[in-house]
Design a protein that fits this description.
This protein is of the alpha/beta class and 335 residues long. The chain has helices at residues 15-26, 45-55, 70-75, 77-97, 135-155, 181-195, 215-226, 230-233, 269-280, 304-308, 317-331, and strands at residues 7-10, 32-33, 59-62, 102-106, 159-164, 166-168, 199-203, 209-210, 212-214, 258-261, 267-268, 285-289, 298-299. The strands form four sheets. The protein has a six-stranded parallel β-sheet, with helices on both faces.
Amino acid sequence: MNPDGKIYLAGHRGLVGSALKRRLEALGCRNILTRTHAELDLTRQDQVEAFFAAERPDYVFLAAAKVGGIHANNTYPAEFIRDNLAIQTNAIHAAYLNGVKRLLFLGSSCIYPRDCPQPMKEEYLFTGPLEATNRPYALAKIAGIEQCWSYNRQYGTQYLAVMPTNLYGPGDNYHPENSHVIPALIRKFHEAKAANRPTVTVWGTGTPRREFMYSEDMADACVFLMNLPDSQFVPLLGVLPSPSGRGAGGEGAFLPPLVNIGVGDDLTIAELARLVGQVVDYQGEIVFDPSKPDGTPRKLLDVTRLSGLGWRAKTQLPDGLKSAYRDFLHSRQPS
């Protein structure tokens, strides 16, 4: 990317977007476009097209999405599929209409089948049924990948989808019901410690295995990919080259324009809970509630494609959790 180019960062106030903003600023990018939801409703096609036509960004990081954990996905399935489909459809099409050079679409590892072989490779997309508890969200994200792929093939665009593993870090959502597992556990253990409760109850059996990535590492990987030279970036886009420079159509043996972003190892929810308890310094007992859903049995991404390009995560989970807990404590201080 040209550091003087216009970079539109959609969703700059969320966990993913805020990490991307910090990384771009650290690299000297001077022209980052951001809009709050009040300033630009990405579910509104008219607003999105007017914004892109007025600003004409060179690069887009599409990190805006409606996200949440198992409870939120089960409670608001209509919003999860409706809002995410609208956001990505409007932004991707407006990017095409206004000549965006490169676009990075951020999805989630839940796009892969529930019983996917482990670790999950990019080519396992579309190979089996999805986990029911987050199927509406996963289907929306799969549609976004397919839209990027279709535009690359038909219009010669350079739109890449990345699938980060489970993320945590500064600016996370610590809502008691709608947060993901690490921020939910941090809050649970902190409040139990403050109230001197003898036990903390964790949803499910504790046996599912999960991979977790520090958000700052994820942002570094995204910017790394967007800064790849054409010789490395274009082969990721899932199109056959043609003399005209446009997508030649036809899938052949080509993968979707998809790159996994992860750390390459995982642990059980029980192990995670114990680790969070240690970081928070909670001294009580951890109890698991098997009446609550476990979700997918295991989710570990195969990161061979990304590591083959020369990138690996740097932050170890215990260090990242300590940083996340400091952020949680800071977020609870009066402003």
